[in-house]
Amino acid sequence: MARWKRAEALIMIAGIFMSAAFNSAYAFHAAVDSLFNSPDPFVQSTVIPNIEKYRKADVVLRCRSADGSALAGVQVQANMIKHSFLFGCCPPPNEPRRSLFLQIFNFGLPENAGKWASLERTQDNWNFSSLDELVNWAESNGVTLEEHFLSGYVPTWAQSLGGGLAARQLLHMRKVVDRYGTRFRFYQVDNEAKIANATLWDSMKVSFPQYKDRFGICDNLNMTYWDQAGLWTMPGPAEVERCWPGCKFAANQVHCATMGGTSGDTYSPRQFYEGMFNKYLGSDMPIHLTEFDFPCPGTIRPNGYLSGTMTEDRKAIYYVQLATVSFSHPSVEAINFWGFGPGGYMPGSGFVDGSNNPLPCFNAMKSLVTEKLRTTSNGASDAQGDFTFRGFLGFYELVVTGPNGLSIRDTFELKPSQSPVVVLVTSQGVQSPAAKPMISPAGGFLVTPVQVTITDSTPGAQIRYTLDGADPTESSTMYSAPFTLSAPATIKARAYKTGMSPSEVGAATFRGLLAAENPAGVVAGLDYSYYQGHWDVLPDFQTMTPVRTGTASLLDLTPANGRTLDFGMRFEGYIDIPADGIYTFSVTCDDAVELSVSSVSVVKSFWYSPGNGQIGLKAGKHSFRMDFFQGGGPFSLAVNWECQTAGIAKQTIPAANLFHGDNSSTVTPRMNRASVNHGPVTVYTIRGQRVKSLEGSVAGPKTQSLVGARGVFVTVSESARWEKAKVVAP
Fold first, then answer.
1. In DSSP terms, which residues pair with 522 in a beta bridge?
2. Could you give the CA distance from residue 68 to residue 398 in angstroms, rounded to a whole number?
3. Last residue of a domain, one of 661, 683, 716
4. How confident is the model at residue 107 (pLDDT cuts 50, 70, 90)?
5. Whether residue 70 sits in one domain with residue 125
6. 597 and 639 together in one domain
7. Crossing angle of helices 165-180 and 199-207, rounded to 10°
8. Is the pTM of this model over 0.90?
9. Maximal CA-CA distance, the chain
10. What separation in angstroms does the CA of 277 have from each of 235, 238, 241?
11. What is the reported pLDDT for 608?
């Protein structure tokens, strides 16, 4: 599997490719160009397409006169002024660094000013002056703040309170939230397991129900500091929710070295993406990467990505890489670099030097955030009075100039939407949109018919909806009363009201249960293939030759025969579903697993993070596959299922429900062309079948290997017609 290129190699790339999907009106910083022009498949096939998909939307600026008629040919200019995504750094305490900060960042955490030990250095002597000043400055400049953090650090005088610590800690936490309320968009209730006990989490939700959507957790899982054992110990959303019910975001600190240290680890941005961010795919709980930095100059501890010395130029490349990869992932809401200046937690990790001169990482990040990932669009409205463009999500300044030379200047926010966002512009400026309709239930698998209700909070608005996944128009079916849905459908709804912009589209997808394949001639157990090798992410076992194969009665580590590192396994066959219903599959593993049922990926679990997923299945035998690998260190594998309607409590999947195909007959091989780079031959792979012999007429030389095992490799000449041959199974 292709890997992310090393940073020092990226900076040397002089690629000519520049995606038209991104702003190309600037000469970008070399660190930005080297990344976006990189031939690395991960960059070109994942990072860049994801940015286009998840961080942009189409917008229609609908220009209308006072009587509602279209204004064709008016000049329109839309300039993005602020990202929705939160690019952050701990705000510096004074000028000129604050002005420099505002050239890049729209988000931040108070580095120390918000901590208990700073606010109440001696008992009952509160001093909020520094934090007040920071909050006032942030509000005046449109900077979103995340409080870091309510539970600590515990002041020296409070460390001897013993059993009385919890009550005093709760008093402090309430005092901070009482004082600042909505002025902090987010509150880290705890960080590094400094909270006295988990009941304080519930107490805060009870005390401040109006702010419960602002409470999250950083580096704490059930009173254990989750980052103590390394970056990838961050749990998945299900485990965070289990320990901290109602948690609205999960934050993780990624200091690459210890405080004051001059050596650290450079984790691959792809490792962040696949090992951390992917855990939260499909979850409503976003990730905040809140504490990132690297000492410079500093020694890079070898870990397979970078090595040698961290220089300012390399730091710029690394920061751009991590910020861009974070921005590309739909589960990430914010990234925060820790130090802005040269001092702080790690020497030389910031964006300016001691004389406040911008460092290469400042110029690189500024080029990324304000140039590369920035939309400016201008032109004339069409005959219908519409001006359409695709832009990054965020806030825009809009200028519309009519034929008389008079201009309307206003602002609007471009929010995520799968359909074009319509913004109504009149002589009074941008008209507010109607509220987004709410569909209840919000979708899911359709086991039995459900009654669907659509509501909208805009008085007098009409709701139009569709059942085929098409975006509603003013001529779509008007909603008047709840209706019964008996078949799978994607419901979309939009609200309309005269004098307002149309609402965002509300959507809910109701999926049917997947039909069983019910193959004939199956026998007990799953086929397994066992592999050896070292991987950082799940490899593509389909392209590899197994060390051995066999039949497994359960989904466990038995096929490894006691091996503890550098191995992988694929289990394939069928799972017998006893009754129609919604099944939850859950996996706890170390290092990684992907589990699929009926060719649908249901669970991805990484680095001892419990993963789970649901799928609607009809009774019968469904195809099943699970891939697992173990690198080094601890390892484990536990696979469970549950289904309420089938009466199955959470339990290990029984051996009685696992099957594989009967290989006792002559079968036609499933051949996959693997390579044409071996001179005059073509390599084919026969997958998932035991092989006794190969029969058939071949117009050229052939080689067969691993007879008696699955994963046979067969080489034939280019002129051969081996696909007509037969595999004779034992």
1. 661
2. 19
3. 661
4. very high
5. no
6. yes
7. 30
8. no
9. 92
10. 10, 14, 16
11. 55
